[in-house]
Write a structure and sequence with these properties.
The chain has 256 residues and is an alpha/beta fold. The mean pLDDT is 95. It has a single domain, classed as Glycoside hydrolase/deacetylase (TIM Barrel, Alpha-Beta Barrel). β1, α1 and β2 form a beta-alpha-beta unit. The strands form two sheets. Strands 1, 2, 3, 4, 5, 6, 9 and 10 form an eight-stranded parallel sheet that branches. It has a two-stranded antiparallel sheet with strand order 7-8.
Length: 256
Amino acid sequence: MSTPTRVVDLNADLGESFGAWRLGDDEALLAVVTSANIACGFHAGDPLTLRRACASAVTRGVTIGAQVSYRDLAGFGRREMTVPPDELEAEILYQIAALDGIARAAGGRVSYVKPHGALYNRAARDPEQAAAIAAAVVSYDPGLPLLTLPGSATEAAAAEVRLRAVTEAFADRGYTDEGRLVPRGRPGAVITDPAVVAARAVAMVTDGVVETVGGHLVELAPRSVCVHGDTPGAVRLATAVRQALAHAGVTLAPFA
């Protein structure tokens, strides 16, 4: 009996340069990933950077996602904020619409939404902020999937409004025993060894598990695997992950 074909998406954060400040290698990553989480100007990315990222993604056939964030350029969107739900919903709607307009001008479109940084982690445990994200997505386009952690408040909020939630795993990030991401700045939060990152990605997809910083195994079933664009050596990491997944018989394809 043949083994069922396993299919997974490989996503990374792009469009995060701002003016004279350069971060990551968008062109190189776009040659590796199947989906691009492109910044929307709130945590990073200026209009020219976003336009170039969208145009390159369209040329390479990479799916475009809106990476929405808190309004926090100074903190790169990694500082947790308490934003009133109606304000947060409006700000997320604004970001999706802005990036979708740029993407459409380049011949593409926004095909999914993924929160960034502190907003991603806060919404994973905060039903109120998660609901604001889901409401913004639904108000713009109820057909847009929402990329998030499995078992999160974001996944539950998406279900409440009949929004498709797509679960992802992070190959270059450490996990707690509870299945959440280790906060940045703590030991084991970011993993930069290509061999280790690639092996973790394969285990996530083929075995449905990830080893936590505590040495335990947490079950997951990702439809997408993320490598952060600002992780040191991101292109090498993403390439190693793609090659390892292909070697394991996994098909790389976007979920949207």
